[in-house]
Amino acid sequence: MALFTSRGPVAEVFRFGLVPIACRARNEDRSQVALSLNNNEVNIYGRAASEWKLQETLQGHDLRVTGIDWAPSTNRIVTCGAVSLLCI
Fold it and tell me: Which residue ranges make up each domain of the chain?
């Protein structure tokens, strides 16, 4: 689904299931997105045509992931969890 203004599309809407997305980050060229579905995992999706396909699931937190960042120059993902655990 796309959202439009008089000048064209401004955003696209995608669904990743029924569970709330707690946090997310995209890589520099926006071809991949890392998101946590309100649990202790980070799912990495890649863009395939007009939809997102699950590429990998990262695990390492005991509790819910509360933050994700994707560094543009190093292409590394940093996450933090509910107990202040930082995973790089």
Answer: 20-87
